[in-house]
Amino acid sequence: MKQLLYSVLALLFTPVLVASEMPLNMTEGVTDISNRVYNLHMIILYICCAIGILVFGVMIYAMINHRKSKGAVAANFHESTKVEILWTIVPFIILILMAIPATKTLIAMEDPSNADLTVKITGSQWKWHYSYFDQDIEFFSLLSTPREQIDGDATKGENYLLEVDKPLVLPINRKVRFLMTSEDVIHSWWVPAFAVKKDANPGFINEAWTRIDKPGTYRGQCAELCGKDHGFMPIVVEALSEEDFDAWLITQQQHAQNAEAAAKTALSQTLTMEELMAQGEQVYLARCAACHQPNGAGLPGVFPSLIGSPIIKGAVASHVDIVVNGKPGTAMQAFAKQLTATEIAAVVTFERNAWGNDSGDMIQASDIDSGSSTPAASDDSDTAIATTLPATLPETQQADIPATETVVEVTEDVKAVVLDDLTMDELMTMGEKVYMTSCIACHQATGAGLPPAFPSLVASPIIKGPVSDHLEMVINGKPGTAMQAFGQQLTPQEIAAVITFERNAWGNDSGDAVQASDVDGHGK
């Protein structure tokens, strides 16, 4: 019997003795903080194992030596004050012993002061943007795993889905402060070797820091469910010696100067259709295919199709504008800082001529005005009219404006279009477009919402109530809820159209036709 007891105890003690060598155990990492986190983890693990050994040891001993077959009689006692005091004080002491090292480690993890280098990390679907403060260096880091491996047409590499085109380069032996935020949804920057995992929230700045001890390449990934390509958002950090890092900074600054000179030279170059299509396809597959799919079909209701779409068939200026400046309130990002003028020209040319679009349009780098983000006017009357529109005007509005309407500047930052009242059909058509890009994510294509987080718009109190209340909600949002303020994201005409659509779609049938003048006059 004693031999059995020794065997059981040996099995219980073995995990404690070899835990640090287990391949599934937490790794020590390459920073002081990661080592402290590892040591804290091991202390807590040992405490838990000791408690487990003690508890199960007593249980096993009691079951063996106080079993009924040996004539043991259970003790009969009730409400023992000593036992109750004991099982209250002992766990309290254990928790205090755990809390002391844990608190010290947490305080150290949250102290980014006196940093030698600050890097701003911005997450977006689905890439990372790194900006080095005081160094005039910034770049985007994208997944570089070949599409053939992702599709299963090629053998997967050693670092499958954990490789990027441009790694974050950091020095060793210097304290690096991270400022983390997001352009769209919540992401999370996680590098296990540094013991750094911090959420990147839109509209907020979170801080973290590290001091790397060893040169090398360290990998991580987004640790937040940030959308359909969440698994394709890796992080690669290349840690260099201090001397090599300083040399890298000089090299990057020189590359930036060379890229600027090359961009200026490209403005005078004219590429053939074949060259534009070849380069445009490369850019599209790397930057656009994640949302709009390699075949341009998109994901209806989420990411629009580019096959025969209004933006593709519309004015070139509107197409360039949405690529350069993005579209507020949607997942369409601004690529002005991500792509060169040549790349923008190539991808717009590709999109307008691929998948049967066959527009014949050829856009050159010289057509991309980096200042106004619109191409130069041409003899095409539609294009000429589009280039008179404000660069910030959403493309849905530009596509619907007849040539007889006039653009007027209200202030330096706010521009409006003088429009006549639209018919109910026009309002419903425009409103549906706006709803499908700005509202569908929360309230669903059917207007049913996701109660209780996102209320249904089918016969809801706000829909059946006064138009002014509906206007107030859309323009100014609702504090304390997920309802955003769209007053700065949509034009008055778009707000009028989407409210008209919501009040008359899905059987609401209010008959209300809201006009841009109603939006301009709201609250005045």
UniProtKB/TrEMBL annotation:
The chain crosses the membrane at residues 43-64, 85-103. GO terms for biological process: ATP synthesis coupled electron transport. Binds a copper A center. It holds the Pfam family COX2_TM. It is a multi-pass membrane protein. The keyword Transcription does not apply. Residues 369-381 have a biased composition (Low complexity). Keywords: Copper, Electron transport, Heme, Iron, Membrane, Metal-binding, Oxidoreductase, Respiratory chain, Translocase, Transmembrane, Transmembrane helix, Transport. Residues 361-381 are annotated as: Disordered. It catalyses: 4 Fe(II)-[cytochrome c] + O2 + 8 H(+)(in) = 4 Fe(III)-[cytochrome c] + 2 H2O + 4 H(+)(out). Gene3D superfamilies: 1.10.287.90, Cupredoxins - blue copper proteins (2.60.40.420), Cytochrome c-like domain (1.10.760.10). Residues 18-113 form the Cytochrome oxidase subunit II transmembrane region profile domain. It is found in: Cell membrane; Membrane. Its main location: membrane. Its EC number is 7.1.1.9. Residues 275-355, 426-506 form the Cytochrome c domain. Subunits I and II form the functional core of the enzyme complex. Electrons originating in cytochrome c are transferred via heme a and Cu(A) to the binuclear center formed by heme a3 and Cu(B). Belongs to the cytochrome c oxidase subunit 2 family. This is Cytochrome c oxidase subunit 2.
